[in-house]
Amino acid sequence: MARVAFLGLGVMGFPMAGHLAAKGHEVTVWNRTGSKAEAWVARHGGKAAPSAREAAAGADFVMACVGNDDDLRQVCTGPDGAFAGMAAGAIFVDHTTVSAQVTREMAEAAAAAGLGFVDAPVSGGQAGAENGVLSIMCGGDQAQYDAAEPVMTAYGRTVKRIGDSGAGQLAKMVNQICIAGLVQGLAEALHFAEKAGLDGAAVVEVIQGGAAGSWQMVNRHKTMLENRFDFGFAVDWMRKDLGICLDTADQIGASLPGTALIDQYYKDVQRMGGGRWDTSSLIARLRVMDKG
Ligand code: NAP
Questions:
Q1: Which atom of ligand 1 is nearest to the CA of 234?
Q2: What end-to-end distance do the CA atoms of the chain give, in Å?
Q3: 159 and 175 share a domain?
Q4: Structural domain containing residue 204
Q5: Are 201 and 270 in a shared domain?
Q6: pLDDT tens-digit series, residues 116-142
Q7: Is it the case that residue 292 has pLDDT exceeding 70?
Q8: Is the CB of 126 inside a 6 Å radius of any atom of ligand 1?
Q9: Active-site residue, from 47, 160, 172, 240
Protein backbone atom coordinates (compact mmCIF):
# COMPACT_ATOMS: atom_id res chain seq x y z
CA MET A 1 0.00 0.00 0.00
CA ALA A 2 1.21 3.51 -0.77
CA ARG A 3 1.20 6.86 0.99
CA VAL A 4 -1.02 9.00 -1.22
CA ALA A 5 -2.03 12.66 -1.12
CA PHE A 6 -5.19 13.74 -2.94
CA LEU A 7 -5.67 17.41 -3.87
CA GLY A 8 -9.11 18.68 -4.91
CA LEU A 9 -12.19 17.00 -3.44
CA GLY A 10 -14.84 18.12 -5.93
CA VAL A 11 -17.50 16.04 -7.64
CA MET A 12 -14.76 13.76 -9.00
CA GLY A 13 -11.95 14.00 -6.44
CA PHE A 14 -14.05 13.28 -3.34
CA PRO A 15 -15.14 9.78 -4.40
CA MET A 16 -11.82 9.00 -6.13
CA ALA A 17 -9.91 9.70 -2.90
CA GLY A 18 -12.50 7.59 -1.07
CA HIS A 19 -11.67 4.57 -3.25
CA LEU A 20 -7.96 4.98 -2.40
CA ALA A 21 -8.78 4.83 1.31
CA ALA A 22 -11.10 1.85 0.80
CA LYS A 23 -8.25 -0.03 -0.95
CA GLY A 24 -6.07 0.47 2.14
CA HIS A 25 -3.79 3.28 0.98
CA GLU A 26 -2.66 5.81 3.58
CA VAL A 27 -4.45 8.92 2.31
CA THR A 28 -3.94 12.60 3.19
CA VAL A 29 -6.35 15.02 1.53
CA TRP A 30 -6.28 18.73 0.85
CA ASN A 31 -9.05 20.91 -0.52
CA ARG A 32 -8.96 24.68 -1.03
CA THR A 33 -12.27 24.95 0.85
CA GLY A 34 -11.32 23.17 4.06
CA SER A 35 -14.81 22.03 5.04
CA LYS A 36 -14.84 19.48 2.18
CA ALA A 37 -11.59 17.95 3.46
CA GLU A 38 -13.09 17.71 6.95
CA ALA A 39 -16.21 16.04 5.54
CA TRP A 40 -14.00 13.59 3.62
CA VAL A 41 -12.02 12.62 6.74
CA ALA A 42 -15.25 12.23 8.72
CA ARG A 43 -16.42 9.73 6.12
CA HIS A 44 -13.22 7.91 5.13
CA GLY A 45 -10.70 8.43 7.94
CA GLY A 46 -7.16 9.42 6.93
CA LYS A 47 -5.87 12.94 7.45
CA ALA A 48 -6.55 16.44 6.12
CA ALA A 49 -3.65 18.84 5.55
CA PRO A 50 -3.82 22.66 5.63
CA SER A 51 -2.03 23.12 2.26
CA ALA A 52 -1.12 21.20 -0.88
CA ARG A 53 2.54 21.43 0.15
CA GLU A 54 1.88 19.83 3.54
CA ALA A 55 -0.41 17.15 2.08
CA ALA A 56 2.32 16.20 -0.42
CA ALA A 57 5.10 15.92 2.18
CA GLY A 58 6.04 12.27 2.66
CA ALA A 59 3.66 10.98 -0.05
CA ASP A 60 4.80 8.46 -2.67
CA PHE A 61 2.06 9.67 -5.02
CA VAL A 62 0.24 12.99 -5.18
CA MET A 63 -3.02 12.83 -7.13
CA ALA A 64 -4.88 16.00 -8.13
CA CYS A 65 -8.28 16.74 -9.66
CA VAL A 66 -8.83 20.50 -9.76
CA GLY A 67 -10.37 22.81 -12.39
CA ASN A 68 -8.35 24.26 -15.27
CA ASP A 69 -4.80 25.16 -16.40
CA ASP A 70 -4.34 28.02 -13.90
CA ASP A 71 -5.66 25.91 -11.03
CA LEU A 72 -3.19 23.14 -11.86
CA ARG A 73 -0.29 25.63 -11.98
CA GLN A 74 -1.25 26.97 -8.54
CA VAL A 75 -1.60 23.54 -7.01
CA CYS A 76 1.75 22.32 -8.44
CA THR A 77 4.09 25.29 -8.44
CA GLY A 78 2.30 27.94 -6.36
CA PRO A 79 3.94 29.18 -3.14
CA ASP A 80 2.20 26.51 -1.06
CA GLY A 81 2.00 24.06 -3.96
CA ALA A 82 2.65 20.34 -3.95
CA PHE A 83 6.04 20.39 -5.69
CA ALA A 84 7.53 22.35 -2.78
CA GLY A 85 6.53 19.58 -0.36
CA MET A 86 7.18 16.43 -2.39
CA ALA A 87 10.19 14.24 -1.68
CA ALA A 88 12.59 13.42 -4.53
CA GLY A 89 11.30 10.49 -6.58
CA ALA A 90 7.65 11.02 -5.65
CA ILE A 91 5.17 11.08 -8.56
CA PHE A 92 2.46 13.68 -9.24
CA VAL A 93 -0.58 12.24 -11.06
CA ASP A 94 -2.87 14.85 -12.59
CA HIS A 95 -6.51 13.86 -13.16
CA THR A 96 -7.63 17.39 -14.09
CA THR A 97 -8.66 18.03 -17.71
CA VAL A 98 -6.14 20.64 -18.89
CA SER A 99 -4.15 21.56 -22.00
CA ALA A 100 -1.23 19.42 -23.19
CA GLN A 101 0.83 22.62 -23.01
CA VAL A 102 0.43 23.20 -19.25
CA THR A 103 0.95 19.47 -18.75
CA ARG A 104 4.35 19.59 -20.46
CA GLU A 105 5.22 22.76 -18.50
CA MET A 106 4.40 21.06 -15.19
CA ALA A 107 6.16 17.84 -16.21
CA GLU A 108 9.33 19.83 -16.96
CA ALA A 109 9.11 21.69 -13.64
CA ALA A 110 8.61 18.36 -11.86
CA ALA A 111 11.61 16.78 -13.60
CA ALA A 112 13.79 19.77 -12.69
CA ALA A 113 12.82 19.19 -9.03
CA GLY A 114 13.55 15.44 -9.22
CA LEU A 115 9.85 14.51 -9.29
CA GLY A 116 7.72 12.41 -11.62
CA PHE A 117 4.61 13.66 -13.43
CA VAL A 118 1.91 11.61 -15.16
CA ASP A 119 -1.03 13.27 -16.95
CA ALA A 120 -4.08 11.11 -16.33
CA PRO A 121 -7.39 12.79 -17.26
CA VAL A 122 -10.48 10.71 -16.68
CA SER A 123 -13.71 9.87 -18.45
CA GLY A 124 -16.84 8.31 -16.97
CA GLY A 125 -18.28 11.24 -15.06
CA GLN A 126 -19.55 11.47 -11.51
CA ALA A 127 -21.06 7.97 -11.62
CA GLY A 128 -17.78 6.54 -12.90
CA ALA A 129 -15.90 8.19 -10.04
CA GLU A 130 -18.41 7.06 -7.43
CA ASN A 131 -18.44 3.47 -8.71
CA GLY A 132 -14.65 3.35 -9.23
CA VAL A 133 -14.95 2.49 -12.93
CA LEU A 134 -13.30 5.47 -14.64
CA SER A 135 -11.40 5.30 -17.92
CA ILE A 136 -8.00 6.93 -17.40
CA MET A 137 -5.84 7.98 -20.35
CA CYS A 138 -2.25 8.65 -19.44
CA GLY A 139 0.88 10.37 -20.69
CA GLY A 140 4.41 10.41 -19.32
CA ASP A 141 7.49 8.36 -18.71
CA GLN A 142 6.82 4.59 -18.91
CA ALA A 143 8.48 3.74 -15.58
CA GLN A 144 6.58 6.49 -13.75
CA TYR A 145 3.33 5.33 -15.33
CA ASP A 146 4.07 1.71 -14.34
CA ALA A 147 4.59 2.82 -10.74
CA ALA A 148 1.36 4.87 -10.64
CA GLU A 149 -0.93 2.47 -12.50
CA PRO A 150 -1.69 0.13 -9.55
CA VAL A 151 -2.72 3.13 -7.43
CA MET A 152 -5.04 4.46 -10.16
CA THR A 153 -6.80 1.09 -10.45
CA ALA A 154 -8.48 1.91 -7.11
CA TYR A 155 -10.93 4.04 -9.17
CA GLY A 156 -10.04 3.21 -12.79
CA ARG A 157 -11.44 0.26 -14.73
CA THR A 158 -9.50 1.01 -17.92
CA VAL A 159 -6.13 2.63 -17.30
CA LYS A 160 -3.74 3.01 -20.24
CA ARG A 161 -0.60 4.91 -21.17
CA ILE A 162 -1.03 6.47 -24.60
CA GLY A 163 2.42 8.08 -24.97
CA ASP A 164 4.75 10.75 -23.64
CA SER A 165 3.83 13.72 -21.48
CA GLY A 166 0.63 15.39 -22.77
CA ALA A 167 -0.61 12.30 -24.65
CA GLY A 168 -3.20 11.57 -21.96
CA GLN A 169 -4.64 15.06 -22.32
CA LEU A 170 -4.65 14.77 -26.12
CA ALA A 171 -6.57 11.47 -25.78
CA LYS A 172 -9.08 13.21 -23.49
CA MET A 173 -9.57 15.84 -26.23
CA VAL A 174 -10.40 13.02 -28.67
CA ASN A 175 -12.98 11.80 -26.14
CA GLN A 176 -14.58 15.25 -25.80
CA ILE A 177 -14.70 15.77 -29.58
CA CYS A 178 -16.59 12.45 -29.86
CA ILE A 179 -19.00 13.39 -27.07
CA ALA A 180 -19.85 16.79 -28.56
CA GLY A 181 -20.92 15.25 -31.87
CA LEU A 182 -22.73 12.34 -30.26
CA VAL A 183 -24.79 14.52 -27.93
CA GLN A 184 -25.75 17.00 -30.64
CA GLY A 185 -26.79 14.10 -32.91
CA LEU A 186 -28.87 12.55 -30.14
CA ALA A 187 -30.43 15.90 -29.22
CA GLU A 188 -31.50 16.49 -32.83
CA ALA A 189 -32.84 12.94 -33.17
CA LEU A 190 -34.94 13.05 -29.99
CA HIS A 191 -36.18 16.55 -30.79
CA PHE A 192 -37.20 15.38 -34.27
CA ALA A 193 -39.02 12.40 -32.74
CA GLU A 194 -40.92 14.73 -30.41
CA LYS A 195 -41.88 17.10 -33.21
CA ALA A 196 -43.02 14.13 -35.31
CA GLY A 197 -45.30 13.06 -32.48
CA LEU A 198 -43.43 9.82 -31.75
CA ASP A 199 -42.84 8.22 -28.34
CA GLY A 200 -39.10 8.96 -28.05
CA ALA A 201 -38.49 6.24 -25.46
CA ALA A 202 -40.15 3.63 -27.68
CA VAL A 203 -38.01 4.69 -30.64
CA VAL A 204 -34.84 4.45 -28.54
CA GLU A 205 -35.85 1.00 -27.31
CA VAL A 206 -35.81 -0.20 -30.90
CA ILE A 207 -32.72 1.60 -32.21
CA GLN A 208 -30.31 1.59 -29.25
CA GLY A 209 -28.99 -1.89 -30.07
CA GLY A 210 -28.36 -0.96 -33.71
CA ALA A 211 -25.81 1.16 -35.53
CA ALA A 212 -27.09 4.41 -33.98
CA GLY A 213 -26.67 3.21 -30.40
CA SER A 214 -24.28 4.93 -27.97
CA TRP A 215 -23.61 5.31 -24.25
CA GLN A 216 -25.23 8.73 -24.49
CA MET A 217 -28.35 7.24 -26.07
CA VAL A 218 -28.67 4.45 -23.50
CA ASN A 219 -27.93 6.60 -20.44
CA ARG A 220 -29.28 10.03 -21.32
CA HIS A 221 -32.32 9.68 -23.63
CA LYS A 222 -34.83 9.33 -20.78
CA THR A 223 -33.75 12.46 -18.91
CA MET A 224 -33.38 14.42 -22.17
CA LEU A 225 -36.99 13.56 -23.03
CA GLU A 226 -37.99 14.69 -19.52
CA ASN A 227 -36.02 17.96 -19.91
CA ARG A 228 -33.88 17.12 -16.84
CA PHE A 229 -30.22 18.08 -16.96
CA ASP A 230 -28.73 17.48 -13.54
CA PHE A 231 -26.68 14.38 -14.35
CA GLY A 232 -22.97 14.97 -14.11
CA PHE A 233 -20.68 16.85 -16.45
CA ALA A 234 -21.54 20.55 -16.56
CA VAL A 235 -21.78 22.70 -19.70
CA ASP A 236 -19.29 25.19 -18.19
CA TRP A 237 -16.69 22.39 -17.92
CA MET A 238 -17.51 21.19 -21.45
CA ARG A 239 -16.86 24.67 -22.84
CA LYS A 240 -13.49 24.71 -21.06
CA ASP A 241 -12.67 21.34 -22.63
CA LEU A 242 -13.87 22.27 -26.13
CA GLY A 243 -11.83 25.48 -25.88
CA ILE A 244 -8.76 23.34 -25.22
CA CYS A 245 -9.67 21.07 -28.17
CA LEU A 246 -10.15 24.00 -30.57
CA ASP A 247 -6.92 25.76 -29.50
CA THR A 248 -5.00 22.51 -29.91
CA ALA A 249 -6.62 21.83 -33.28
CA ASP A 250 -5.38 25.24 -34.46
CA GLN A 251 -1.86 24.44 -33.27
CA ILE A 252 -1.68 21.03 -34.96
CA GLY A 253 -3.59 21.98 -38.12
CA ALA A 254 -6.66 19.74 -37.60
CA SER A 255 -10.08 20.91 -38.80
CA LEU A 256 -12.88 20.60 -36.25
CA PRO A 257 -15.80 22.37 -37.97
CA GLY A 258 -18.56 20.41 -36.23
CA THR A 259 -16.97 20.73 -32.80
CA ALA A 260 -16.54 24.49 -33.27
CA LEU A 261 -20.23 24.82 -34.10
CA ILE A 262 -21.38 22.69 -31.16
CA ASP A 263 -19.17 24.78 -28.86
CA GLN A 264 -21.28 27.77 -29.93
CA TYR A 265 -24.46 25.78 -29.20
CA TYR A 266 -23.14 25.18 -25.68
CA LYS A 267 -22.52 28.93 -25.43
CA ASP A 268 -26.23 29.41 -26.21
CA VAL A 269 -27.07 26.98 -23.39
CA GLN A 270 -24.92 29.05 -21.01
CA ARG A 271 -26.86 32.14 -22.11
CA MET A 272 -30.08 30.27 -21.29
CA GLY A 273 -28.77 29.94 -17.71
CA GLY A 274 -27.60 26.34 -18.21
CA GLY A 275 -23.92 26.61 -17.32
CA ARG A 276 -24.33 23.99 -14.58
CA TRP A 277 -26.76 21.80 -16.55
CA ASP A 278 -25.24 18.59 -17.87
CA THR A 279 -24.01 18.30 -21.46
CA SER A 280 -27.17 16.61 -22.73
CA SER A 281 -28.96 19.99 -22.40
CA LEU A 282 -28.28 20.72 -26.10
CA ILE A 283 -31.85 19.48 -26.67
CA ALA A 284 -33.20 22.34 -24.51
CA ARG A 285 -31.66 24.80 -26.97
CA LEU A 286 -33.47 23.12 -29.90
CA ARG A 287 -36.78 23.26 -28.01
CA VAL A 288 -36.33 26.99 -27.39
CA MET A 289 -35.36 27.64 -31.03
CA ASP A 290 -38.39 25.82 -32.42
CA LYS A 291 -40.80 27.62 -30.14
CA GLY A 292 -39.94 31.05 -31.51
P1 NAP B 1 -15.67 20.53 -9.12
O2 NAP B 1 -16.72 19.69 -8.45
O3 NAP B 1 -16.00 21.93 -9.47
O4 NAP B 1 -14.37 20.51 -8.17
C5 NAP B 1 -13.22 21.23 -8.48
C6 NAP B 1 -12.21 21.01 -7.37
O7 NAP B 1 -11.02 21.72 -7.69
C8 NAP B 1 -12.68 21.53 -6.01
O9 NAP B 1 -12.16 20.69 -5.01
C10 NAP B 1 -12.03 22.91 -5.96
O11 NAP B 1 -11.84 23.39 -4.65
C12 NAP B 1 -10.72 22.61 -6.62
N13 NAP B 1 -10.05 23.80 -7.17
C14 NAP B 1 -10.45 24.54 -8.24
N15 NAP B 1 -9.60 25.54 -8.45
C16 NAP B 1 -8.63 25.42 -7.51
C17 NAP B 1 -7.46 26.16 -7.22
N18 NAP B 1 -7.10 27.24 -7.95
N19 NAP B 1 -6.71 25.76 -6.19
C20 NAP B 1 -7.07 24.69 -5.45
N21 NAP B 1 -8.15 23.95 -5.68
C22 NAP B 1 -8.93 24.31 -6.70
O23 NAP B 1 -15.15 19.84 -10.46
P24 NAP B 1 -15.14 18.29 -10.89
O25 NAP B 1 -16.44 18.00 -11.56
O26 NAP B 1 -14.69 17.45 -9.75
O27 NAP B 1 -14.04 18.34 -12.04
C28 NAP B 1 -12.66 18.42 -11.75
C29 NAP B 1 -11.86 18.21 -13.02
O30 NAP B 1 -12.20 16.94 -13.59
C31 NAP B 1 -12.12 19.26 -14.11
O32 NAP B 1 -10.94 19.51 -14.82
C33 NAP B 1 -13.15 18.56 -14.99
O34 NAP B 1 -13.11 19.06 -16.33
C35 NAP B 1 -12.66 17.14 -14.91
N36 NAP B 1 -13.70 16.13 -15.18
C37 NAP B 1 -14.94 16.23 -14.60
C38 NAP B 1 -15.90 15.26 -14.88
C39 NAP B 1 -17.30 15.34 -14.27
O40 NAP B 1 -18.18 14.58 -14.71
N41 NAP B 1 -17.56 16.17 -13.27
C42 NAP B 1 -15.61 14.18 -15.73
C43 NAP B 1 -14.34 14.09 -16.28
C44 NAP B 1 -13.40 15.08 -16.00
P45 NAP B 1 -13.02 24.17 -3.85
O46 NAP B 1 -13.84 23.10 -3.20
O47 NAP B 1 -12.30 25.03 -2.88
O48 NAP B 1 -13.78 24.97 -4.87
A1: 41
A2: 60
A3: no
A4: 170-291
A5: yes
A6: 999 999 999 889 999 999 999 999 999
A7: no
A8: yes
A9: 172
